[in-house]
Fold this sequence. Notes:
The protein is an alpha/beta fold. It has 20 helices and 22 strands.
Amino acid sequence: KENDSLKKENNELIQRLSEIEKSVIWSCLMKFQKVIDSLFPQKTRRRYLYNRAFTGGRILINEGFSAFLTSISQFFFYNTTSYQYKIWIKQNEPAIKELRYLKESEQNFSFRPKISIILPVWNVEKKWLQIALKSVIKQIYTNWELCIVDGGSTKPYIKRILTEYAKKDTRIKLKFLIENKGIAENSNEALSLATGDFIGFLDHDDELPPFALYEVVKKLNQNQNYQFIYSDEDKIDEKGNRRYPFFKPDWSPDTFLSQNYLCHFSVIQRTLVDSVGGFRKGYDGSQDYDLFLRCTEKIPPDQIGHIPNILYHWRMNEGSAANNPSAKPYAFTSAKKALEDALIRRNLRGEVKEGLFPSTYRIQYAIIGNPCVSVIIPTKDNVHLLRRCIESILEKTEYDNYEIVIIDNQSSEDETFAYYHSLKSHKKIKILYYNKPFNYSAINNFAVGHIESPYILFLNNDTEVVSNEWLSAMLEHAQRDCIGAVGAKLLYPNNQIQHAGVILGITGKPGKKGVAGHSNKYLPDGDNGYFSSPHIIKNYSAVTAACLMMRREVFQEVGGFDENIGVAFNDVDLCLKIREKGYLIIYTPYAKLFHHESLTRGYEDTPEKKRRFNEEAYYVRKRWGDIIDKGDPYYNENLTKDKTDFSIG
């Protein structure tokens, strides 16, 4: 009966299709298509431009003008980035002559560890498998072995290809399983073949550039204490075009809990892999994330090395996670499970949640106790700004144990004092008076000296709370012993990003040494940005004091704000003092506020303000110039310092 029903349904569909093909509309469409094909032949630039225009028109009609503008900006950004990346490759990667020289020089390494490349294989296309194998064989560093395990592939050519390659090169080890045990257990079978000092990981359809292992061993010769090394990576399509380079930060523990940015190419000391028990069953799709979490928590941060060079090409093809993260939804479940396990091992109370974008996660830490937070707001007149700020805090803040400390700095308008009078009876608000010329650092130091709360939050009066959890989202991190300061996501009123962390050395002026700049500035908040960086909990070297939370004891430990820096970069100086003491700086996108920037004091647009700004920049560079010029560990040396959009330098 079920077969008869399906046959009937199929016949009805065939009949309807036949009727459509005989219709006048269909006939007109076919004629129109022939005209289009003649005017814009397939595989020509004219056809490419026609398709782009057609797609743009469809977006404009179906999704509106805003979506249309976004698609245009993304199109031009991708093409610009693609062009920049091609130039970067030409300027930074060794040509054939250089490869020959490197091949000769690798024999001079004093430390020449054997690297075992783990390659689990299962039903991969012939051409991708051959490319992966050749990419290892072509390595200019020669002390390697390739440990391949086939998980019971049903495609007959796989065993033949693997056997042929193994016969040609004795460094290739093979093991054929009767059945597919899954990626984690197949990888463990490959690990059992390994005899090297270090373990590297390669997927069966990806590629290593010929200098990958050379760069790893070069790094190890610089410091043999490294137990975990990872590199930058890009993606490669089916035609061999390289795209989407991921230039990563140095070791960033909170960033790593938000996304598996280590991923490719990772090389780990074999004894470390053995000590954690290798891969674990039940974590397929994120088995590497789980392994890396367990390995990195076993070693000190200075034994994790980063190579700022593209040493891995991740294949983009149909059904791959490189092409579409949602292609393997089970990987997200496994990642959350791996993170939950990490919290248990580390004795941390919290909940693992999905992040704001695919392949990102949020560790939401439990707040211990119910500590009081003092929200310090310096202000001078402009009462409409202060009122909006105060009202947004009172109306939207979920966390209840806080006080608002207003620091008046020589206000003179009657309206201001009338507003103060209206606040006097409010149990959460107190007002202090600082009767000296404006100095942001001195005002806030004065305020901290008059409060007793264990947590302090510096807040500009031209801010406005957006997310209800803003205070708790910052407190959950400020309470962690390793964290020195917490920053928030600040938006312009048009929902473009004003602050999502601070990058050292950003100048805005090509060729000029700078102090710092806000990352992702002017990026629409709905855009993904550079590998989701504005939308994940992330380590930075500094965050803005326009909204900054920290423990009062840490503030006192570093001596508070430097009062020689009255306006500009006092937050950068504070954060660098915090980092000097060994604490981490963290940014959270879950604390979200509007920032009506510089509306109280205005912009740095007068000769006097420009002079003062330059003097303070000089002061900060005199103190921290060596640290700044060394490079921001939470940025990447291949990215520009002229802009804040993470474009290639």
